[in-house]
Amino acid sequence: FKGGDTCEYLLSSGRFLGEKVWQPHSCMMHKYKNSEAKNCLIDKRVVFIGDSRIRQLFYSFIKLINPQVKEEGIKHGNIPFEDKSASIKVDFLWYPEVNGSMRQRIKSWTEGSVAKPHIIVVGAATWSIKIHNGSNEALAQYKINITSIAPLLEKLAISSDVYWVLQDPVYEDMLSESRKMITNEKIDAYNEAAVRILNSSSRNSKAKVKVFSVSKLIAQETIMKSADGLHLPESSRDTNAMILMNVYCNKIMKPIDGSCCQPQPPLTLIQKIAFCFFTLSIFGYLIISLIHRNNYRKNKSCTDLESGEEKKPAISTPNVSTLEMLLHCFCKLGLIMTYFYLCDRANLFMKENKFYTHSSFFIPIVYILVLGVFYTENTKETKVLNREQTDEWKGWMQLVILIYHISGASTFLPVYMHIRVLVAAYLFQTGYGHFSYFWIKGDFGVYRVCQVLFRLNFLVVVLCIVMDRPYQFYYFVPLVTVWFMIIYATLAVWPQIVQKKANGNCLWHFGLLLKLICLLTCIYFLSYSQGTFEKIFSFWPLSKCFELNGNVYEWWFRWKLDRYVVFHGMLFAFIYLALQKHQMISEGKGDPLFSSRVSNVLLFISIVSFLTYSIWASSCKNKTECNELHPSVSVVQILAFILIRNIPGYVRSVYSSFFAWFGKISLELFICQYHIWLAADTKGILVLIPGYPMFNVLVSTFIFVCVAHEISQITNDLAQIVVPKDNSTLLKRLLCIAGFFSGLHFFSAMQDQSRH
């Protein structure tokens, strides 16, 4: 379903999500802050012309610029407003009827000597109905007057934005006796006349007077809350003012979560090069496949007519070369990236704002929990945090995070705090997993490092190119990448202490603890020295990776939020492996981890700790204060969960294959959601099938999961080709990768120069 003209949809159609959140048809509306409104309207003049309803809209509009404004102006007179700091002028001109006076005022702006307003908002009718007691003669005169004004408005619309506000319905039961003649039937007649005349007078669609009809839809839902049956409640007129702001400002400010009225961004130079590369890969793969298929057919076994026996061919199966495999991967990736681009960069599919309700978050959580329990199987091994268990852990956490994002649950603080623990748990696993590998294997080779870095970063690098986004935008991947390098540096730097060496001499354990203490000291220092942290990551080329919107503050905030949890993961791995080595824990099938008494005590403490953290998180009142405590206390719930999951032998011996399947592609799911499940870079929801929210989620989710799974397979295949085990070949590939990033930097610099 094509998105269509989102500006037209914004002005004419939509629905309420809940009581106060307005959702335009097919696009997302940005909520403008005062600073953003000022930046958009700097050096601009806005004029509202009409009656008391337009005056209401005027006040709501200027409150977006200055919330301190009070409605104290003359009721039946002109009201000026000026913001000198941004040179913004907004005027209300009292013209309650469409008559000669209004025509004269509008005509004055069409004459060359008078400065034209940048935005003109006009609307009036109820006074004409009231003064003339709803007579047909008044309606006929209204049509004549609009017919004379329409050409002037069309002329102004060539250089200014002109909006004709249709009349909102009234709540007839609440109208005073002096307004009883203002009926919805009369209002509809006046609106119909205005729309017909304005549309018929338009010869040039680009210079068309925009009809602001969405106010009618909003009023139909909210006019019952009106104080007098005629004027809209404050929340409704604020919505109208925000719509006006979106119509004018979105094309100037280009907010990420304001897709209405935004033109499709032009293709960058790097995007064009990427498009050419993927196109060539597709054609290259097709050509090689055809050649191989023809060769295979020629070499097929054929029957010897004389002996009646089959002759075996020299080649019995098609030989898949490295080049063909490479082209095959890029061919699939090219098609997938096309889908990414169409979903979140082209104005092809619709996008909608998120709207949180408790049911939209908790019902899917219960549903996936039931599915997860249903697919329970025995584990291959019963060690603490075995592979199946960690995959299961990643899987259910990822599904919860996905539901959290699509439901917009970040607005509900208790849910936000628990999701922060899940993100911390991922990083805990990073510390635990990589420490365990280096400690046990002692493999600090380049091959291992390159494999991990490639698998973590491949998809994000491709998306940075195709979707024209900075690396830091996908914050979780930079986070796990940097922490992997910190873990590697901590353990690889002299003296290299591994389990084999430590078993020979217990003093090496103290050496490793000293290394961990040094790491903790560095983390503590950087977390309280924002200036030092920003200086480190502001040096080129690190700045190219970690800057977002021209600074590294976002990166510092993300790093600081979970600064201790990787260290906690490393320390846990060290203690667990030491206990395992000295046979102080029992990991047999069905056996409790410790003696019955110790296990029961630890299990009780873990459950109490888990619940205590949840109670604290649920009682949070301020996100900033809770974020300050989170790095130090998140480990409590993580360790509690690990002990609850692993102390009872029967619990440790089973896992959910449903969750484990998702855990294997958790990284791809986390990254892909940005563009093909959510929309507008996670700010909204992708709508493939409008009008059917549940069916839309089912279809988009199915495609999203399939794509994530396919990208995981492509990444694994390419990792074998791009990062070979042979050191000399690997060195050549690394030189090629360095050349690729150098070229990318060169083209990026060219792009930035052309933009400036």
Automatic annotation (TrEMBL):
Q: What class of enzyme is it?
A: transferase
Q: Which reaction does it catalyse?
A: CMP-N-acetyl-beta-neuraminate + acetyl-CoA = CMP-N-acetyl-9-O-acetyl-beta-neuraminate + CoA; CMP-N-acetyl-beta-neuraminate + acetyl-CoA = CMP-N-acetyl-7-O-acetyl-beta-neuraminate + CoA; a ganglioside GD3 (d18:1(4E)) + acetyl-CoA = a ganglioside Ac-O-7-GD3(d18:1(4E)) + CoA
Q: Which Pfam families match?
A: Cas1_AcylT, NXPE4_C
Single biological process term from Gene Ontology: carbohydrate metabolic process
Q: Which family does this protein fall into?
A: Belongs to the PC-esterase family. CASD1 subfamily.
Q: Classify the source by domain of life.
A: Eukaryota
Entry-linked PANTHER family: N-ACETYLNEURAMINATE 9-O-ACETYLTRANSFERASE
Determine if Transport is one of this entry's keywords.
no
Q: Which InterPro entries match?
A: Cas1_AcylTrans_dom, NXPE4_C
Biological source species: Promerops cafer (Cape sugarbird)
GO cellular-component terms in the record? Golgi membrane
All copies of the NXPE C-terminal domain together span: 22-72
Q: Where in the cell is it found?
A: Golgi apparatus membrane
An example Gene Ontology molecular-function term: N-acetylneuraminate 9-O-acetyltransferase activity
This protein is called N-acetylneuraminate (7)9-O-acetyltransferase
Locate the transmembrane regions by residue number. Answer: 269-291, 325-343, 355-375, 396-417, 452-468, 474-494, 506-526, 561-579, 600-617, 659-679, 685-709, 730-750
- Principal location listed in the UniProt entry: Golgi
What UniProt keywords apply to this chain's record, in alphabetical order? Acyltransferase, Glycoprotein, Golgi apparatus, Membrane, Transferase, Transmembrane, Transmembrane helix
Give the membrane topology, semicolon-separated if more than one.
Multi-pass membrane protein
Report domain Cas1p 10 TM acyl transferase positions. 253-734
Q: What is its EC number?
A: 2.3.1.45
